[in-house]
Amino acid sequence: MQIIVAGAGIVGVSCAIWLQRAGHDVTIVDRAGPASGTSHGNAGVLAAAAIVPVTTPGLIWKAPGMLLNKDAPLFLKWSYLPKLIPFLAKYLTYTTDKHVDYYSLAMATLLQDSADQHIALAKGTPAKAFIGTEDYCFGYATKADFEADSYGWSKRKNAGYVYDVVDAKTYAAYDPTYGDAFEVVVRCKHHGRISDPGKYVQALADHFVDQGGKLQIQEITDIDVTDGAITALKTKDGDLTADRIVFALGPWSKKIAHKLGVKVPLESERGYHIEFTNPSQMPKSPMMVASGKFVITPMDGRLRAAGVVEFGGLEKGPSRAPFDLLKRQVNKVLPDLEYDDIVEWMGHRPAPADSLPLIGANDAGGKSYSAFGHQHVGLTGGPKTGRIIADLVSGTKPNIDLAPFDPRKYAVR
């Protein structure tokens, strides 16, 4: 079949490659090109154990205090609050233990083999050089801080994840970079990292084109819909049609999804990173600094600190406070760090109210498919999402339960 994949981030490129390998004629359409957004700016971690959502029990009471605390990793552009209220009202209904369990078990099926999925996706391509299989670590300043986080670790354990809890001295024998900054470090096994996310996705996209795929730089402005099914993509250069269309536009997917009757409550969860070029210290593994909910990741020639949650929509520019917080937090755990330059970046992560990505057909006839809404784990879950979409389009039943990710759960009935 002729297939259009709308979006050239890691999810879209993964869909395109697996569809191409299944024998389809595939075109990627994107307004800026491969990895121009969050697929470039993410933390670079294959976070297979990221199965605990932000919406844990008690968030509704903690959030106001976090928003007023300049050292908390939650930010809000207050001028955006009136537009955000309907989403927040829905978002906060998911702060229950029941939903955390539902989310965790569903996401485990999507994420648990993420390193293997990336290796399979990149096999035979130059992109494989960017994949590492290091542990993903969580650093806690005190034992009490670790114990206070027991809720999340119990959920990961219940889902079958393997991790080691070590003291500072034991971790320092593996990597002395952090000195005594952490009293407890949790090492999550069977994870990994991408040493340059932007170049990685670009290398995958180049491979896709080398194999006969087409990449068109065009902005999708609208869609035509007849009887609930899409008939064309509208661009400034004319209409685009195909046998099947896959939407992997991240937070920009909302308008199209709603027009297709997939009324998903979705917001942009703005993420930030700062990057130190030619750093004097280079840790061995990605480290989640638990106190600031951000990740320090070693990359090719630079050190990236990425994280923070800010609600502020798609239109407004970056805020100063998240960058300043990241700098303070890095200085706290790496006080002797020297570097040549520092780069700041802000991007958009698609966050559905229930935190579950949408993966599957938008209509009963399977004319179009959704592959977006991965919030913090687009890089981690992208390759498997692409494989699932390719199976669905080709008429093969995937071997996981897709009900939690079904776009039609939001269909207007």
TrEMBL record:
GO terms for molecular function: oxidoreductase activity. Its EC number is 1.4.99.-. Pfam families: DAO (PF01266). Keywords: Oxidoreductase. GO terms for cellular component: cytoplasm. Residues 3-392 form the FAD dependent oxidoreductase domain. SUPFAM superfamilies: FAD-linked reductases, C-terminal domain, FAD/NAD(P)-binding domain. This is D-amino-acid dehydrogenase.
